[in-house]
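Sequence only, no structure available. Ideas?
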Amino acid sequence: MNLIIGAIIVFAAVLGGFAANGGHIAALWQPFELVIILGAAAGGFVIANPMSVVMKSLKSIPSLFSGPKYKKADYLDALGFMYELFTKARKEGLMGIEPDIEEPGSSALFQKYPRLMKDHHAVEFISDYMRLVISGNMNPFELDNLMDIEISTHHHEAEAVPHAVQQVGDGLPAFGIVAAVLGIVHTMGALGGPMSELGTLVAAALVGTLSGILIAYGFVSPIATMLTGYAAEETRFLSCLKACILANVQGYSPQVAVEFGRKTMSSDFRPGFSELEKHLRGGS
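Reply:
I predicted one. Tokens follow.
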């Protein structure tokens, strides 16, 4: 939604201001300039990045319209699951949760929280580290360090897409200049013709520079910033799970363990203590 609203504002400001100043909007429609700019940018993007990043970038397009991956309900679902998992472990022992950890897809406990089940990274994170907890071979400090390494690696991978998109945004103004220079070359070939034709060709060439700059700073760079925020939010979600697991390993009660997770949440999503308690009682 933000992308659509922002695009409308950008177009309204640029085209509206141009038209209000007496400009003819039709003169800005130069499709071959866009072919040069966008085609060169796409080619550079493919050259600069491995195919895995290219495919991830294409798959991230729907998220630009659907908004952030994580919402408050996702965090409440995660905390509710962790509370029930820890409670079950206290009642039945660590071996009691082993079937849930080994086969999340067939676990009634996991199935109770569909939002969490849709996030395979989170499910894998919980399963892997609770499996280590069950094995009993790692102390909290070792577990903390290992979690930090995995979260850092995951964050680095998630940032590959916004970084690649930002590089495209940085290069678009230059590709706009390329389109403008090619337009001037075309204009030079028409010297000696009618002045009106020369004016049209020069205007078309200048639109190339305009298009490269506008697309870069009005759309591509903001999209890269948006994707960077999405990557950071996924890191925060995993950090919330990490805090819960570590608190449980250190011997805190399930209620207190999920409180550790609640404290890692940003203010936009963090429920109040009473709200979380009510949610846990409703889900248990």
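The chain has 14 helices and no strands.
Hope that gets you unstuck.
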